Write the structure tokens for this entry.
Amino acid sequence: MRPFDTHALARLRRELESRPADTIELPDLRRASVMIPLIPVDGNWQLLFSRRSLELAVHSGQISFPGGGVAKGEDYVDAALREMEEEVGVSRALVDVIGRLDDVVTRSGYIVAPFVGIVATRPEYVLQESEVDEIYEVPIETLLADRNPEIRHVDFKGRKYPAYFYRTEQMEIWGLTGRILKSFLDVVRLTV
């Protein structure tokens, strides 16, 4: 497999622009958005993840993309950009949104709209400590490694569900973030 370089990034942009995202409308579910930030680090492209604060009531300590709930009347992409600014301090002015992936329905009652954005330069992060404990920049090639993803069955409310698990040296990514990451990497594989 070729490396994910600037040529692959250009192909990714074209691929995302050419495919409309499947959107889901279920009025009983809440809306949320996440940003999948691509960060340039020493000539390589990395994805930005955060570890949710251990103090949060829901999904504490889990690895996630920046994101959260959509406010009433707020555009989905604006929600993803706002949440990224609030959680990790990356200004929306630095982000070139290049596409949207298909909506994802969670078992906890959300419809999540994932967006892909290129961050112009490696930012100075400012963490919102009430929501984020740590951040990680992970090379795309690490996530594309043959060992990833591992499929395991997890228990949720007494039922077993298959889940994608991605391992890096620092962490394990799974749950909703694993599902969104799998969708993103499926598109990336078309470009490398």
Notes: The longest strand covers residues 30-41.
